[in-house]
Amino acid sequence: MSASASSKYAHLVINKDGKTANIQAKTIQFNYYESLYSPIVTATLSFIDSGGSIKADKEQDSNERLTNIHDGLPITGLEDVEIKIESKFGTLDFKKNPLKINSAPIISQEANRQTVFLSMNSAPAVTNNDSPIARKFKGSISDTVTKILTNDLKITENRIKVDKTRNSYAFVGRRRGGLDIINDLCRRSIPVNGDAGYFFYETQDGFNFRSIDKLIEEGTEKIKSDASYKTSHTYFYDGVMSNSTENDFKILIEPRFTKDQDVLTALKEGHYYSRNIFYDPRTQKKDEKTFKLEEGGLKQTLGKPKLSLKDRVNSYTKVNMHVLDIGSQEPGVDVNPNNDPREWLATSRARYNLLHTQMMFIQVPCNLELKAGEVIRCEIEFPGEKKEEGAVSQQQSGNYLILHLCHSFNAQRSFTSMTVVRDTYGLHTNKG
Hints:
By secondary structure, the chain is an alpha+beta fold. The protein contains eight helices and 24 strands. Strands 1, 2, 3, 4, 7, 8, 9, 10, 16, 17, 21, 22, 23 and 24 form a 14-stranded mixed β-sheet that branches. It has a three-stranded mixed β-sheet with strand order 12-15-14. Strands 19-18-20 form a three-stranded mixed β-sheet, with no helix packed on it. A hairpin with a 4-residue loop joins strand 7 and strand 8. It is globular and about 80 Å long. The two termini are 36 Å apart.
């Protein structure tokens, strides 16, 4: 069986107030999405309904005749959708944590059938909007994130993964949702080891507040030392398709580089070399700190150890201004800056922007073991006729971080599409 063959819809049920509708045999298309930019997972589903699927309520029809699902439940929003899809590599399981319907337009209607399109997201998206947070937080950022997820968003601890931070931050919620608050903390967070910069995102396993450096280090190490992980996370492209089994780990269409460096923008934004001025309102004095990529930052990379900037960038190309937060969150006189931006501002900006140096779109046979935030290895064919030194491009091939991911299913085929990124070129990382 090929991984790109149709997957099994093991369970697809809509629940509303104890009333259920099975759409397993009616579904014609299902797409599931994860992204490092998104604190929630989302999905879309299309199903065809010929009627006679569910009994109408007395309020809708005094005779309680059988009708279509859209009108019979009826689908009005916030219904639970339990999902379980099985493929050759892994299972997508949202039976215990069903998705919520956000909208359900009828996209096609004929005399004997209708096509319904469901837009869905994970349940915490609803809690985020209907339970704003106004109270004050203080202490370690990672502890604050854990408290918001468990106490406010009601996420169980086994569905939470938080990398510990070494900095603290005091702030007021200002009636924002928990997901929005945590998103704002990402750029302000410094891991115990590594450069500033986190991602907050959800996968099918749960919620993640992860250091960028930790994601890279962890994924790279798995590629090197875990044989089963390396097998399921290594993909090849050579433009040749053989029998279906051997194609399970082939990149199916030509890799498309949507971005490959943008040096002028990087220079303008000061990603390589910046001057940062911090003003202290208590003393009315300023402090300057220069950030230079070659002297700090990028402790973990996905490609070659360092970008060589020697004799290329001789002076700072961006000036950043910042006012220190002195005493705004503490009673009395506090002389210490709240989450001192001198520790994270410049490195955080550089870390995020340089991670997106290269962006590549690929499509592979369905692999439900892949998740946003994981590292995959791509081995791309060396162009040209002379391949005596190897068929793999030493420049384009190597480790990439999954930025966006979509598992797509229909009656005939199953695919996984990804946008992957990395900060430097080549097969070799800073750990060999």
